[in-house]
Each structure stands twice: as C-alpha cells, then as structure tokens.
Amino acid sequence: MQLKLSSLAERPEMLGQVVGMANSWPEFLLHDPVGDTHYGRIATELPEYVLFAEDEHGQVVAHAYSVPFALASADDDRGELPARGWDEVLAWAFADRRRGTPPDTVSAISIVVAPHAQGGGLSARMLSAMRDNARAHGFDEVVAPVRPSGKHLEPRTPMEEYAFRERADGLPHDPWLRVHVRAGGVIEAVAPASMTVAASLEEWRDWTGLPFDTEGLVEVPGALVPVHCEPGRGYAVYVEPNVWVRHTL
C-alpha cells in the first residue's frame, strides 16, 4: 500500500477525516473520563503531534497521537513513569501546557489503524513515524503506555506476568509489545491503573450487551482484565493496566 504521511499541522484541512476515521475500540473504552476530557484536544491544540497516513485514494487509513510533557519536572515531583499511565500522562501534558512548563519527553497516546487496513504492518510504520516526529521536535525519548493487543484473550492473567512473557526468540509474546521492542523500545513497568471507567449497570449493559446482574468479576469482550460489578450498589468499575515502554531516540 502506497502511503502519504503528514501531520495535522501540515495539513489542517484533514482534521475531519482524521478524527472521523473508523476504529475498532471497544465502546466502553470511549467513556474513560480523562480521555473524554483531553483526547479530542490533541488534534486541535497539538496538531504537530498528530500524524496520519493516506492511501493512494486519499483516504485516511491510520493515525498516531502523541503529547509532549515534563517527566522530570521538579515542581510536581515526577521523574518516574506514573502508575496511572495513560490517564496520568494526558493530564500532565495538558496541565504543563496550561502552566507553560517546558516538556522534556513525548508520550504516545494512540496508534489507530482503520479496520479495513489492519494486518498490513501499518501500526509499526506509524510508530516509526511517531519516533521520527518526536526526534524532529528536539526530543530524545518517547514513552508509551502500551495496551497489549492480545491481553484481552487472557483477562485473568496478571499483567505483570503477561507483559514480560517472551517467545523462544526472546521477543515479547504479545504482538503489539513485540512491535515496540523491534522498533527499539524497552519494556519498563506495568501501569496498574492506566485507564478507569466507572459507570452505572445500565450503561455497562448498553455498551456490552451483558446482563451485569451478578456481583464480582465480569469478563467483557475487548477488556484486558475483568470488570468489577456491584449490582447491590448499581455500578461497575473497570481499571485497565497498561505496559510502559521506553524508546530512546
């Protein structure tokens, strides 16, 4: 597939096509309040960190979002990659932007390939483009709170076990983690509470088609770990672990 790679800063007229591109995210993931508050701001406020690929017909088939932030900020006592992963780094990035704090690191936020274009290595190409873009903006490191693509098949396996599982060739067992490591990334740690979705049982039923009428852990298609269901209290909570990968550029 012949691709044309651009940023939204270079091609602002493509905003509608980029944000409107089809994706395959599970519905419940779209209701993380931190993501709901900040994710949409990236395309309009940080367009130089939104990359997209067009096919030979001019159709957007993939995009990659990242954000610059201050990891070594002494004022906020940071320095370590946060346990709250994706949620925390989004909050840090926009807090830094509001305060005028100079960033020193870029975090990957998402790499999404349109459903009809999946399976052709586009995710690896977008990751490479994200690394190149960070380097071009003067950064020497990209970090990524990775959502392992095969973990939903083993929702009861602890992420600490799954993330560091290797094949016979020494590469990660998980396909998406494997792409990161092949690109030069190093698996550093698990972010145990990277995303949180807390909602009423009615909302969970609507999102998943499951009854959510039994107390305890509920396995939901697409979820990396089970959802905690509390029918007596009328809510269920999903706390997703991700895996921090560090890319030195």
Tell me what the structure shows.
Helices cover 28% and strands 29% of the residues. By secondary structure, it is an alpha+beta fold. The radius of gyration is 18 Å and the shape is globular. Helix 2 crosses helix 3 (85-99). The longest helix is centred in the middle third of the chain and has 15 residues, at 85-99. The mean pLDDT is 97. Strand 7 (216-218) and strand 8 (227-230) form a beta hairpin. It has one domain (4-193, 242-248): Aminopeptidase. Strands 1, 2, 3, 4, 5, 6, 7, 8 and 9 form a nine-stranded mixed beta sheet that branches. InterPro entries: Acyl_CoA_acyltransferase (IPR016181). This is N-acetyltransferase family protein.
Topology record:
Blueprint: E1 4-7, H1 15-19, H2 33-45, E2 50-54, E3 60-69, H3 85-99, E4 105-113, H4 122-136, E5 141-146, H5 159-163, H6 175-182, E6 185-200, H7 201-208, E7 216-218, E8 227-230, E9 235-248
Parallel strand pairs: 4-5
Antiparallel strand pairs: 1-2, 2-3, 3-4, 5-9, 6-9, 7-8, 8-9
